[in-house]
Structure formats: structure tokens, C-alpha cells
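TL;DR need C-alpha cells for one chain.
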Amino acid sequence: MKKIAFIILGFILVLGIVAVVGRLWSGEDDWMCQNGQWVKHGNPAAPKPITPCKSKKANISPSPPSFVPTPTVIPTSSRLINLDIPFTSQAPFGDWADPRQQDGCEEAASLMAVYWAKGKSFTKQEALVEILSISRYEEEKFGSFHDTSAQDTAERIIKGYFGYTKFEVKKNITTQDIIREIMLGNVVIVPLNGQANGNPYYTAPGPERHNLVIRGYDPKTQEFITNDNGTRRGENYRYKQEVLFNAIRDYPTGDHVPITKIEKSMIVVKK
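>> reply
TL;DR here they are.
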């Protein structure tokens, strides 16, 4: 009985050796099965396998969908923009002899911008009341209603008096910075040298320290559309973009404090 068992075991062992030798001889380890065809993989001298080629289906998980970011909309200057902003001159009834109105450019510009942002309008009389009220507020709180820098105009008048906070003061600006804000639907207030504007409706030689509102831009003519409160003819007044930008010049807060440097600043008012 033991002899028979040894014979069977020996026969199985021989079969195993033959199978291994046959596999090595067949060259299956030197070939790859791809798309039902044997393709050389290892030893180029190995004979092509005699067994059928059966490709195994790869167990590949489906790839997760790629993340597609939302495209950023970059405003362009290809269309005319002219926001509907109420207008007033800083002397609504022409009383330029009143120093509060003569120096009321920051007050008038802020009034127009904030009322636009709040969706409000005003009459000439209401504009005058507001301009004088802002001047009184500044004098009581800060000791003067005279010229204010872009930063102080924003902090004292737009935020302090009107309680409006959706604004931003930007410095070292370029022409394209202004155009971009207009294309985004924002209003821009700029401090400037009114003597460099070339506006024929100013009383000569024009205000050395001035503020006005930029309400639009015309890319065809390359002009800024403004509400220039320095004249009663200032509604929708157009300036060539290079003329207005060259005139932009911030100035220090105070009663005609000397201007010692040129700073390009703007106040951006948003809804």
C-alpha cells in the first residue's frame, strides 16, 4: 500500500515539474497577452506561447470627474458705461462766495456717490442742505470743513457723516484701474488739480484742489464721463482719459496745506 502511495506521489511531482518546465519553455513569462494577442515582453528569443491568449479585464475604478473651476469674468472696456448718478454742483444755486460751497467739492462728490449707492435722489435745495450739513459736521468734529485727502474724505464724510461703509481707497492707481472699477459698476471719486483739467467752465485759473465723480467710460472715444461738481454744467461732462488721469493728484487735509508730492488716489464706492 505504501509502495502505491509513493508511486502516486512521485507521478504528481513529475507532472508538476513538467508543467513548470513547459511554462518556462512556452515563454509565457516573456510574452504579454494584450487584446487577445501575444506581445513580446521579456526575452526576445523566447518562443511564442502555445496556449491561447486570454486578456484579463483590468479592474480599474472610474476616474473621478475633473474639477472645472468657474471662469473668472474679467471686465473689458469694449462697451460704453454711464451709471445713473444724481448730479449737483457744489454751489447748487451758484453761491460761490460762500466758503463752505467754494470748498465743498469733497462734500458734493461724496453726496452724489452715496445717494447713488443708496438708490436715492435729491433736489437742488436738498443738495444744498446736505453740503452745508456736512461742512458743519466736519467743523464740529474735526475743526475744519476745508480740503480733505482721499482717505479723510472717505473716512470723515462717506463713513463718518453718511454712515456708508461700502467703499475702498486705492493709491498708486493707473488709468486701467479706474476703467476696471467703472466696468465693474462702481463709482469712482478722484482728487485732482483742477487747473490741469482744461475745463472752460471753471472760474479761471480753476481749483488747485478739487474732487469730482467718474460715472462712466466711453471706450470708443477713450473718455471718462464725470459728474464734475465744480461747475453747474458738470453733469455728464467728458474728459479725455489721459487729461483727467494726468490731473489726478491727492492733497493733504487742511486749509490749503502745501502739496509736496504727486499721489494718484481714488475712492471706489460700491452698491
